[in-house]
């Protein structure tokens, strides 16, 4: 009876791990697309960005655009690896989501509500990727 219970628990854990990894992959892909669009808007110097003159982490809007664009493309590429449930993609996914949280924190004065929204999305990605444990 112990073998059957262990096998059933293992199958349930495997299904939950697959679900969380898929959840993280979808969130990372969507947030990567949003960062890609945000980068394009910043490069084009769109008028949706707020001008904050006295912010300690002040950068040129075009520079922020290229940073957001590059990180968004990387996030979308890593999410493709997460769809195949690769271990390297989980590790890189946590790293890229962490970098994107920092980038969005630094760009809060330029687009505050959107930055906070993406910070929350990337925090969920990190949570979903760190909660999954592989069975030995």
TrEMBL record:
A Pfam cross-reference name: DUF7144
Entry's transmembrane regions: 20-44, 64-83, 88-107, 113-132
Keywords: Membrane, Transmembrane, Transmembrane helix
Matching InterPro entries: DUF7144
Keyword Membrane: yes
Signal peptide: none
Keyword rRNA-binding: no
Domain DUF7144: 21-134
Name used for this protein in its record: DUF7144 domain-containing protein
The organism of origin for this protein: Streptomyces violaceus
Taxonomy of the source species: Bacteria, Bacillati, Actinomycetota, Actinomycetes, Kitasatosporales
